[in-house]
TrEMBL record:
The chain crosses the membrane at residues 7-31, 51-79. This is DUF4321 domain-containing protein. Keywords: Membrane, Transmembrane, Transmembrane helix. The lineage of its organism: Bacteria, Bacillati, Bacillota, Clostridia, Peptostreptococcales. It comes from Tindallia californiensis. Pfam families: DUF4321.
């Protein structure tokens, strides 16, 4: 497998791990409130470029919590095992 394909699969694995971890944290947040602990939203909010005819708006926010971090770590371990 070439290097670029590995980087692509690593990115997909990490994003999937964080999403699944955050989803589990949201579902179990009332039963285990520690899973929802985190720094809050991180990212870029409302960056726009106006070119007269075309306007681009861009936002990228990540809402990290402990469950998402656990999912990230498990995804990296899983990627290394594969």
């Amino acid at each position: 497998m070439n290097k670029h394909k590995n980087i692509g699969w690593l990115f997909i694995t990490i994003v999937t791990g964080v999403l699944i971890g955050s989803l589990i944290g949201s579902l179990l947040g009332k039963a285990l409130p520690i899973l929802t602990f985190g720094p809050g939203p991180l990212g870029i909010n409302n960056v726009s470029a106006d070119f007269g005819i075309v306007v681009f708006n861009f936002s990228f926010m990540i809402y990290l919590n402990l469950a998402g971090l656990i999912g990230l770590i498990l995804a990296i371990i899983l990627f290394k095992k594969i």
